[in-house]
Amino acid sequence: MSKTSIYGLTFSELQxxxxxxxxxxxxxxxxxxxxxxxxxxxxxxxxxxxxxCVELLETHFHMTTxxxxxxxxxxxxxxxxxxxxxxxxxxxxxxxxxxYGLSVCVxxxxxxxxxxxxxxxxxxxxxxxxTAGEIVEQIMHVQKFLDEKGKGERVSHIxxxxxxxxxxxxxxxxxxxxxxNDSQGLNIGARHITVSTSGLAHKIYEFxxxxxxxxxxxxxxxxxNELRTSIMKINRAFSIEKLMxxxxxxxxKTNRRITYEYILLQDVNDHKQEAEQLANLLxxxxxxxxxxxxxxxxxxxxxxYQRSTKESIQKFYETLKGRGINCGVRWEQGADxxxxxxxxxxxxxxxxxxxxx
Length: 357
Hints:
Blueprint: E1 4-5, H1 11-20, H2 27-37, H3 51-60, E2 61-62, E3 67-73, E4 79-84, E5 90-98, E6 101-105, E7 109-110, E8 128-129, H4 132-149, E9 155-160, H5 170-181, E10 193-197, H6 201-209, E11 215-219, H7 225-231, H8 234-237, H9 240-254, E12 258-264, H10 272-282, E13 289-295, H11 310-322, E14 326-329, H12 343-356
Parallel strand pairs: 1-2, 6-9, 9-10, 10-11, 11-12, 12-13, 13-14
Antiparallel strand pairs: 3-4, 4-5, 5-6, 7-8
Helix pairs in contact: 1-2, 4-5, 6-9, 10-11
């Protein structure tokens, strides 16, 4: 019998499963309390369950499918985790400290097919999607790491911006969001969760229709088709025009602000001309737009790209502000460890390949 992660079930799914297998509905509340509030590491640790229920859960589910391979800790408190999955694949998860709380960046796929030319995450193409359970387990592992420190800290925010395209794994993503937001579980507020997409326009429509209060971020990185296609091949399938049509639908449906991620690449997309074009693109809905300007983290495999100068970043920022666009500069965390998304995973895979030779 093939087991799956217990963390992959929403509360209602667990209720239905338990009833289907001869248990009472209230058992679901007990199980979730042990999983998300008491955060036990085994089914036998669920002391108020009867023996039959414990054996049933042990037969059908795993408590964890992740194994920590590496943890790097930065001087600023950022922790980067490398996890090995049950099939041997490895993924990254990052814990970041901000003035507003503790945020975890989760991965949704093994590898990435989006193929952004500047990104370490896409150096290896996608081999598979993560299950909802594997995504939830990233959060639970980090929370248990915090529990062990004994300071009473908790994960307060989630960003779905790790390796992979979340909207390319839509169903598992949505279950993950429902599980994280459930008041009977970790109860992380929907407005404290952000999902980032590279611009899968058809999924933005679907996400809008879900009517969930989770924040949306779009990795834009260029204000015109020619430039965006040259650095993000996804623009061939979903041009800026198609993307902005889906944005209009999302805004009309939700009236919620969208964050636009814009990585600044020296002498590529960081000129005043691009800043003006970006302002024009967002101007009509500027009251619901926020531009996150991100200085580039260099990646060994992409030596053609360098971080924009501080002067260029400041001029870009001032141009947007002068046009009435709300924006800010996000300086990286974990600069003294493998800061770029996917960089730790990439280095580890290189070491594994070298060891085989």
